Task: inverse folding
């Protein structure tokens, strides 16, 4: 989905975590994800 959004000129952020899983089991990955989600929510939910 990220690539299609980029190709369409939409603003998109891709977070890829080496050795990560869909459950965000790694604490460092989880922290990075929630920080990015916080930035997104603050940007779009004013």
Result:
């Amino acid at each position: 989905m990220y690539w299609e959004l980029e190709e369409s000129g939409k603003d998109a952020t891709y977070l890829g975590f080496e050795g990560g899983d869909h459950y965000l089991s790694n604490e460092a990955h989880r922290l990075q994800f929630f920080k990015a989600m916080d930035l997104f929510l603050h940007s779009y939910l004013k």
In short: Residues 22-46 form one domain. The longest helix spans residues 27-44.
